[in-house]
Amino acid sequence: MSQRLSQLSAHLSNSYGRGLLAGEVAIITGAGQGIGRSAALLFAREGAKIVLSEFVLLSTIHLDNDLITVLSIDPAKLDVVEQEIKATGGDAISVAGDVGADDFPKKIVDAAIKAFGKINHIVNNAGFTYDRMLHVLPDDTWDIIMKIHVRAPFRLIRQAAPYFRVKPEQRENRSIINISSTSGLHGNVGQANYAAAKAAVVGLTKTIAKEWGPFGTRANTIAFGLIHTRLTAAKEAGVTLEIDGKKVALGIPGAKPPIDPTASSGQAYPQIPLRRGGSPDEAANAMLFLASPLASYVNGHTLEVTGGSGI
Length: 311
Known about the structure:
GO terms for molecular function: oxidoreductase activity, acting on the CH-OH group of donors, NAD or NADP as acceptor; quinone binding. The protein has 311 residues and is of the alpha/beta class. 35% of the residues lie in helices and 18% in strands. The protein is globular.
């Protein structure tokens, strides 16, 4: 028994002591800001080499109230995150581009292999909302959400298949993490397109889990509840995304600001048992768990990260 404990201790020291993802390679889309940025920084701190991508729609983001324009294509966002990782001794590369473009999956997979020689994890995090009531929802509004939230992750995963369907002697910790939403589990008013897309993500993930499980690859989904990002901020702030010249309002009408998690519980979010929304860092923690060896027997699961909402 003592010998087995010594062996286990040595294993933990050699592996987790260098980080839960030591020596592994992770592609994270939508990594220039919000949850994706938090995940990239966290994975890097846990020893992973990061392939950063920020989704692009040949568009601009406007903060109309302040007359500020920020390019969503701006590679500087990725550069900042890349430099943050390298400043702490980590390793990362940036691959800017439209995640929905036909050539993007090959572009990012080839870049990852050229830089690091392998891929251990894909985190399909890039996305946005384009809300309309069902009876006035136009085809193009439906199509763009499906393209970014379902087609793009599917095509990236398919492109990376040779690096996940591997021989037994080549197996390491490998996982696919697809981001869904409570909208995909329960539906949501004004989000028929988004809810349908996020429901599809769950089905896609379960299929990957069944097809690629025999190769040692795990596939899981995270369904986020309220996480405070630009997509869940107050719509009245005037943040919009332009797609083909059309302004898409981001945010939630009348959304309340984040609450300090260390403060006493209030009543701003009575529908959430923790009485607050989550932070991007808390969202990233869930991603790390599913990617790490701590979830080595978790496959085909949808992890709800909601503060207890919906239970």
